[in-house]
Specification:
- The structure is a homodimer.
- Chain A has two domains: 92 residues, Immunoglobulins (Immunoglobulin-like, Sandwich); 244 residues, Rossmann fold (3-Layer(aba) Sandwich).
- Helices cover 30% and strands 23% of the residues of chain A.
- The first copy, chain A, contains eleven helices and 18 strands.
- In chain A, the strands form three sheets. An eight-stranded mixed β-sheet of chain A has the order 11-12-14-13-15-16-17-18, with helices on both faces.
- By secondary structure, the first copy, chain A, is of the alpha/beta class.
- Chain A is globular.
- At the A-B interface, helix 1, strand 1, strand 3, strand 7 and strand 8 of A face helix 1, strand 1, strand 3, strand 7 and strand 8 of B.
- Chains A, B: It comes from Fibrisoma limi BUZ 3.
- Chains A, B: It holds the Pfam family Esterase.
- Chains A, B: This is Putative esterase.
- Chains A, B: Keywords: Signal.
Chain lengths: 392, 392
């Protein structure tokens, strides 16, 4: 029986909680709080699915899937941890289907998978935490890109940028990994908050950070392809090389001119850095080694070039190491000991060492993850654009 | 048998297509192109799920779910349409579980559901299309909010804002719907592109648009709650009123001062507009009617206040209609004829008419959707901050 009060409550519920979307969603029912990070650093995950037969949690701090259990309302839950403070991707497997957490707005921008993010704060705020310091700004920008297409950039400007109107800044071009987007260093890497905190501590120079989208071919196909988008499954060597070259061309010919016209950037090599993660690290090394007149600071996170590619395409870098060492104010290579690219990255380090090319390196715990990317951003940005850079 | 060439290809594949995330994902297999908008405005949706028993498409241009069929590779697909050019939310139901399209980066930011977006372009570019015109910028900002928390805003600055450094601009405060976030007017509403296009056509005045997050209580709980976030299922009348009041207080006491300090805003009522969709429309009307000294332009999209609330809380608005009509340069109310709030909104229009309060109205086809929100944004922003506003 529905009482009058109950009817009123239901009406209020209908008015206050009107979704903007009438898709086939789980029926309205109990509102679910998930994830819930508890004071003891355990995390409770919840997912409403009265009809599901099995729900599992898949999280990057766990070795494997964690079974969840269903309560009388049809809410599945699991409490895990305590978990080491950091930001982790996770999702649910519902009867074998991977889904984001519908109750969580924090998401991992990516072309191929969908994951949510859970933030476990430290007892003292971590380097990527929102602290009570002056904040820079994140700007979404469009720029004229290749083949008449419009590219998109995410650009960080440091605190005070909009006040110090005569000041110019160095620029760090920062490229995310395969299947990531131009948003990933912002939404997952928290690059803006890391810089806000490092700048507040006087550890990093105020800088502009430009985050491009790495997959030029996909964007061109989307905007130009009409009914026939380029088939991304064609991934032979020649096509991959073309895509890498296209990225470099677009960055040098379109992105940098756009940024230096639109922002108060210092337009010379000593004030340009380039870095990236995974595929973005490969794009970083290729772009830098092909444009030694453009970048003086180079950071490869969890990535490398093979000795074969170095010998074949970048002999000028290793043939005259003294010149290279003079030109590059920083060459950084870092990787996690559990990263599946660990072996290749260490081989790259050994190669540079054998060729007497100076570089700074960091080997961390962990794998090919954005937890490590945040560590590398926090470790490298204090080195950029400093007149005295420590040498290994 | 794996040949040497095949091994090389697999290695290349591993290097080029390294996901940054090793969650329990569908195994790597054929890369899926989805959605594919065809030249004839049909759309092909695809989803890889070799093990699934049933996959359906749920899209806002369809009356109900559309069955998809599986090919030999395990890719489910459906081609639908032709579809009227617009941007539509959709997702898949995989064995009854709602999932976003993993192959699509365009998503609908929301607290409670997860949907992807498909953009069907018009034969001539629609008002929200990316056109070759000067683009403004979208800025993500943090501001000091209630109870020591940090709020987030998305702010549109018009083309030329960073060049015309002595120019000041009017500001439109624009609030999204229930369960939407501060990103929804940007990512789904394409408010920035609509304004870029209207400004390029000389139809709208260059303005700053500030998009706050409507759910203050949730943010405070998240940042202050620790192990005990406020239970959002408590939705009785008093709590709902408190939440609405908190939103108004935060907007007036924190957001506006932050914006007028950080941006070149003209800080007076004639140059402040407020508008919103659904719950955001209710927040708009309450905030405006409680702060007649702050806003001269008011737009309610798909929302209304009841005659009871008007009589009870806003008698000063209707008691002296001549004064109200002089103060408000625009009061706008619009709704779709299939909107489940249609009846209440029309009742609100009738109420205003009976009370001799001037307003402009628009009744469109369609429902409580972001397709309609885009129409309303495009219809109202040309009216804002104009010295001559047409009267009904």
């Amino acid at each position: 029986m529905i009482t009058k009060t109950r009817t009123r409550l239901l009406l209020l519920w209908a008015i206050l909680f009107v979704p903007g979307l009438a898709l086939a969603q789980p029926p309205r029912g109990p509102l679910v709080v998930s994830p819930q990070v508890n004071a003891d650093k355990t995390i409770t995950f919840r997912y409403l699915a009265p009809q599901a037969k099995s729900v599992e949690l898949s999280a990057q701090f766990e070795k494997g899937p964690v079974p969840m259990t269903k309560d009388a309302q049809g809410i599945w839950s699991a409490t895990v941890g305590p978990v080491k403070p950091d930001i982790y991707p996770y999702n649910f497997r519902v009867d074998g289907v991977s889904v984001m957490d519908p109750a969580n707005v924090a998401f991992f921008p990516n072309e191929r998978f969908k994951a949510s993010l859970v933030d476990v704060p430290g007892d003292t705020p971590l380097i990527h935490a929102m602290r009570d310091v002056p904040h820079g700004s994140i700007n979404y920008e469009y720029y004229p890109s290749m083949e008449g297409t419009t590219g998109s950039l995410v650009v960080y400007t440091p605190p005070g940028y909009d006040q110090a109107l005569s000041k110019k800044y160095p620029v760090y071009y920062l490229i995310s990994g395969t299947t990531d987007t131009e948003e990933t260093f912002f939404k997952v890497g928290k690059t803006n908050l890391i810089l806000d905190n490092l700048i507040a501590e006087g550890k990093a120079k105020p800088m502009i950070i430009v985050m491009p989208y790495g997959n030029i071919a996909a964007r061109i196909a989307e905007q130009k392809g009409g009914s026939k988008p380029a088939d991304p499954t064609v991934r032979d060597g020649a096509d991959a090389v073309k895509r890498a070259n296209d990225f470099t061309t677009d960055l040098v010919s379109n992105v940098i001119p756009y940024v230096e016209k639109s922002y108060r950037a210092i337009p010379n090599r000593d004030n340009r850095a380039i870095g990236g993660f995974s595929r973005g690290g490969g794009q970083t090394l290729r772009t830098a080694f092909n444009n030694m007149d453009k970048f003086a600071w180079v950071c490869a996170y969890s990535s490398y070039l093979s000795p074969q590619e170095m010998d074949g395409n970048f002999s000028q870098i290793v043939a005259k190491p003294d010149q290279t060492n003079k030109q590059l104010k920083l060459l950084w290579v870092s990787v996690g000991s559990d990263d599946f690219l660990y072996k290749g990255t260490v081989e790259f380090m050994d190669y540079l060492k054998a060729k007497n090319v100076n570089f700074k390196s960091l080997i961390t715990d962990g794998g090919h993850t954005w937890m490590n990317v945040k560590t590398y951003v926090a470790a490298t940005t204090p080195l950029l654009f400093q007149s005295q850079t420590p040498r290994p």
